[in-house]
Amino acid sequence: MTRLAPLLLVAAALLTGQSTPRKAPPLTIHFPGGAGKQLAAYRGKTVLLAFLNYGCEHCQKFAGELDKIAREYGPRGVDVIGVVFENGAKDHAAAFHKQYAQAFPVGWSDETTVMNWLGQDLQQGYFVPIVAFVSRNGILESEHMGDDIFFNDPDRNIRLTLDRMLAPPRRYRAQ
To answer: Which CATH class is domain 4-166?
Structure first.
């Protein structure tokens, strides 16, 4: 069953119509008390973007799990970034960071921008939290809505994804 888990994740991505990997579109993340920061500024680092809602209990719990990931994977070149994106997100980002996400920064964006970035039709609805993985060279490797099978064991699946992304490229010998 352990070997089957990565295959199930790929199958789930295909069934949900996610078109990854692809070049990560431009995204501005606004941080409390400062100017916006472009996702492109993180080039050279592996980025885990967590799209969250302030009042969502699942998002609050998930932020606690991401704190552990940020502490462990930060020294290995991973930036975990929270993005609060519901109505009033500008006012909620600092509070979310203070209450739930001490080990990683939390900024804000608006719902339309986030859904466009994810390639998700806003009219279809969505479940939070949402997680997206961007490689060192700016490729959106995968994205997972809150109702995705990925969230059946998010800690394990995040670690599998990050370990794969951080692994050195395989070299094949000519025979």
So the answer is: alpha beta
Cα 69 to Cα 117: distance, rounded to the nearest angstrom: 24
**pLDDT (tens digit, 9 = 90+) per residue, 52-62?**
999 999 999 99
Residue for token digits 């719990």?
A: 61
Give the pTM: 0.86
For residue 77 the two structure tokens come to 């070149």
- Cα separation of 20 and 27, whole Å? 17
What residue type is assigned to position 41 of the chain?
Answer: A
Complete edge-to-edge strand list for the sheet that includes strand 106-108:
22-23, 139-144, 130-134, 46-52, 78-84, 106-108, 28-30, 36-38
Domain boundaries, the chain: 4-166
The mean pLDDT of the chain is 89
